[in-house]
Specification:
This protein is of the alpha+beta class. Helices cover 58% and strands 16% of the residues. It contains six helices and five strands, in the order αβαβαβαββαα. It has a five-stranded antiparallel sheet with strand order 2-3-1-4-5, sandwiched between helices. Strand 4 and strand 5 form a beta hairpin.
Length: 165
């Protein structure tokens, strides 16, 4: 193998390592069966959510994940694999890819590591069903505000009733 080829491969490995160092999560999918138009639409949706989606050779990823928190993904690196990395919202890749899979009726999760925990394909699907952080905060705030609002309305009714007397 030529020195130039080795440098190119090492460059790809370094790129993958750099992404993994910053990533909150990495989800691996089997992306076969989608058209070019579908792939472009999927990439756009992922990009809009700040999810880095790339197809790498399994051998390159295998070398890059050694001695990282993503090393457990080694077991799913066979056949066609695409990788979705998120640097902000750890469950974003799973949620978005799950929606895309429902739309296209193609592709499958292989596995994922989300905030240091390994999930198989079924685990990634379950994570995708969880409400987002913003949704959870919104529900929590709603549950806090409901009794307070009810109490305020009760006090207002009592004040109005006393004012009428």
């Amino acid at each position: 193998m030529s020195v130039e080829n080795l440098k190119k491969k090492q460059s790809v490995i370094d790129e993958i390592k750099e992404k993994l160092e910053r990533a909150e999560s990495a989800v691996v999918i089997d992306y076969m069966g989608i058209s070019v138009e579908q792939a472009d639409a999927m990439r756009k949706r992922l990009r809009d959510a700040n999810v880095d989606y790339t197809v790498y050779k399994n051998k390159m990823v295998s070398r890059a994940i050694k001695d990282t928190k993503f090393a457990e993904l080694e077991n799913v690196l066979s056949g066609p694999s695409a990788f979705a990395f998120s640097y902000d919202d750890a469950i974003a890749p799973a949620k978005i890819l799950s929606g895309i899979m429902k739309d296209f009726k193609k592709m499958e999760f292989k596995a994922g590591i989300i905030q240091g925990t390994m999930f198989d394909a079924e685990g990634v699907k379950a994570i995708a069903m969880l409400p987002s952080r913003d949704e959870l905060i919104s529900k929590f705030m709603g549950s806090i505000l409901s009794p307070v609002s009810k109490f305020a309305r009760t006090l207002q009714a009592i004040a109005e009733q006393k004012a009428e007397q």
